[in-house]
Each structure stands twice: as structure tokens, then as C-alpha cells.
Amino acid sequence: MIEYIAETHTYLKDGVIIPSVTQIIHKMMPNKYSGIPARILEKAAAYGDLVHESIEDYNRTGIVPENEVENVIKRYRTIAEANKITVASQEEIVSYKDMFAGRYDILGSVKEKPAIIDIKTTSTY
Fold first, then answer.
1. Lowest CB count within 10 Å: 4, 44, 110, 118, which one?
2. Could you give the count of Cα atoms lying within 13 Å of 112 in the half-sphere of its Cβ?
3. What is the pLDDT of residue 25?
């Protein structure tokens, strides 16, 4: 059983803390965001969260949300239609043995081939 504690970004597998994929990436690239002010990183993270939530809502309902990322969701819709993206599940927690855990964005298919789809946002402030 995997438990996720959002406040601390902590994963527990059978009650034991295991690292997240994000934590492993930060260890591999410790200076990736050095020199970027915390407020910029927080703003970018909030934007990314909103995009992910809005794509998840769109995939579930087929309705483009009327919010500040509406145009991003319309672009996603165009890409999804052009590439025949189908969604089997989204935002599910997974783990590999007792080594790490994380959450995938979309599990489905692209042009009828099985795929794990990772949503990425980039931002300039």
C-alpha cells in the first residue's frame, strides 16, 4: 500500500518512507534551479499545478475550463486530437519495488500505441 502526504511531499510504502522520483532527480541535478528566486519557483509550480488539474478535468469531462490556462488546454486538445491520445487513467500513484514512488500524469495511448504521457510546462517571468 502506498500513502502520499501532500504537505511534505512524502510517500510511504507499507508505512516506510521511500523517496519520490522528484527527490531522486534533485539529487542527480542539485543545481538545476540554483539562482532562481523562491517566489519564481513557487509561481511556476502553481502554474504547472493549475495546468495539470485543468488537463485532468478536461480529460474527464471534455469541457475546456474557463480559467487562466484556457488557451493551454485548447492547445492540449488540438495535440490530443491530432495524435489520437486516449486516456485510461490519470494522476495515479505508482512505485517501483521499495526504491521510489511517484505519480504519472496520463496512462493511455498515442496513435493507438500504449503510452505514459508526462505533462510539462515551462514559464518565463
1. 118
2. 0
3. 87
CA separation for the pair 24, 113 (Å, rounded)? 28
DSSP letters, 10-68, are EEEETTEEE-BHHHHHHHHSTTTTTTS-HHHHHHHHHHHHHHHHHHHHHHHH-----ST
Cβ atoms within 10 A of the Cβ of 53, count? 14
65-95 exposure pattern, b = at least 16 Cβ within 10 A, e = fewer: eeeebeebbeebbeebeeeebbbeebeeeeb
Q: What pLDDT is attached to residue 125? A: 46
CB atoms closer than 10 angstroms to residue 112:
8
**Span 55-98, pLDDT tens digits:** 999 999 999 988 899 999 999 999 999 999 999 999 999 999 88
Phi then psi dihedrals of residue 56, to 5 deg: -60, -45
Tell me the three cell numbers of residue 109.
495511448
Alpha-carbon span 56 to 119, nearest angstrom: 10
Distances (CA, A) of 52 to 16, 59, 82, 95: 28, 11, 20, 20
